[in-house]
Predict the structure.
Amino acid sequence: MAVSNRPDRVLFGPPGRGKEASARPAAGRMCAHPECETVLSTYNTSDVCWLHAPAAYRHPLSRD
């Protein structure tokens, strides 16, 4: 949890939102693609592994 004694100062520590185990998908999920046996990470919110995810094209210098 981020900690600061003064509100005008920088907060130190990990971000407090979305990192808890209860906010992540269940462990042991399998890729939804037929015949793929990849076990997905709890940090992967997608239903498929990186190999079966749709390609995301973006310019190399894009800041998005």
The radius of gyration is 18 Å. The mean pLDDT is 77. Residues 27-52 form one domain. The chain has no helices and no strands.
